[in-house]
Amino acid sequence: MPKVSTTDSGINIEEADRLLGEVMNDPMGGWFKLPFDEKTLDLSHIKAVASRIQASSNYLVCIGIGGSYLGHKALLSAISGSGITKLLFAGNSLSSYELLKIFEEIGHADYSVLVISKSGTTLEPATAFRIFKKHLIAKYGEREARSRIFVTTDAEKGKLFEEASREEYERFVIPDNLGGRFSVLSPVGLLPLAVAGVDIDEIIAGAREEAEPLLPENRTPLTLSNSDALKYAYARHFYRSNGADTEILAVFEERLRDFSEWWKQLFGESEGKNQSGVFPASVVYSTDLHSLGQYLQEGRRNIFETVVKITTPLANIPIPNFVDDPDGLSYLEGKNMDFIQKKATDATITAHRNGGIGVIEIEIPDLSEKTLGSLIYFFELSCAISAKLAGVNPFDQPGVEAYKSEMFRLLGRN
Ligand code: PA5
């Protein structure tokens, strides 16, 4: 569904076909066929549990960090949901202030907790879970507290798995073949989104639409029309090979700010290895044109920019008429805000290209669940291929362990 236009791409079909095979068959390539994996998705179970949470809770505190947090936060911000049960996010930092803010917002209302952690040992979510568990027990008593705790974790190992099994918490599985940052279309992201009233069937339908042409049975022969995600991966490769070491994802809707955060983790953790990789950064325009615009236009030329364009706006306000034209804007009368937004987008792209920045355009029809599901899959696929083109393993993150072991040493863990 996302359409890519770029002046520089240079896709190599034979190589792309081989890389698709490699990422699909990788032991961590579970995301490739995930939209069709009904057993892992188990949508009806997810929806049934989501309804139970909605019936008992004004709030669901989603505890998790990195890939166990950013994806559903991104989709929720972009879509917003029906608001029956409000999602709050904890365990994504070590800030006591942020935790207290959550308790303050919940007040005397009813809530449940969803802990998401593949390893079940990550410090930020584990400490937050302790704090919320204590509070739940104090508020509801041991028995009811237990029924208000939901867990998504590994199928058979980890401290969280052990506790969830022992205490008989309702449990969902993150399969072994799925890395955190590639897990949003699994129960990791789908359960909280369903609780928030987001149409998860549509999200999966969008991902399927994006994935379908690339299934081995459908991609013989592979052609350029099979996937714009490949075009994007090759365009990134082109700019990287020509010296650009920073990519700016530019969105023109505040509601996509969190989506950019998910995108940054996806590409940063997948590609930043062996002392190489493109640094993923993001901006929200036109706001940031008035802060970072100068740098982008005339600063170091080590950047390329990926602009996300939305065909049908979320909303559109007409420009009002004033007979005496007090502000000199009468040339905009009869137009609307979206018209101006689109002209600002085109103007930015042209100006940046003229200023020596490579620009990749990604056009999506709207911000519906279906489109966002396809956009998630689009980026996962392009990221995996892009990392392969850079010669690194897209699916590991050895560098994340370094600070963790140092922190555990300082904290005195045995
Ligand atoms: O993408 C990843 O693998 C990481 O960002 C993890 O999701 C993050 O570190 C949280 O790990 P876990 O789910 O094991 O708590």
Distance between the termini: 50 Å
Domain count: the total is 2
| Anisotropy-based shape | globular
Q: Report the helical percentage.
A: 40-55%
Q: Under the CATH scheme, which architecture of the largest domain would be assigned? A: 3-Layer(aba) Sandwich
How can the largest sheet be summarized? 5 strands, mixed
Write out the strand line-up for the largest beta sheet, numbering strands in chain order.
Answer: 1-10-9-7-8
CATH class of the largest domain, please? Alpha Beta
CATH topology heading of the largest domain:
Rossmann fold
Topology pattern, helix = H, strand = E: EHHHHEHEHEHEHEHHHEHEHEHEHH
Please count the beta strands (DSSP E, at least 2 residues each). 10
- Strand percentage, roughly? 5-15%
Mean pLDDT: 94
Instruction: Quickly count the helices.
Output: 16
Unreliable runs, pLDDT <50, ≥5 residues? none
User: Which ions, cofactors or small ligands are bound in this entry?
Assistant: 5-phosphoarabinonic acid
CATH superfamily of the largest domain: Glucose-6-phosphate isomerase like protein, domain 1
The whole-angstrom Rg is 23 Å
Structural class: alpha/beta
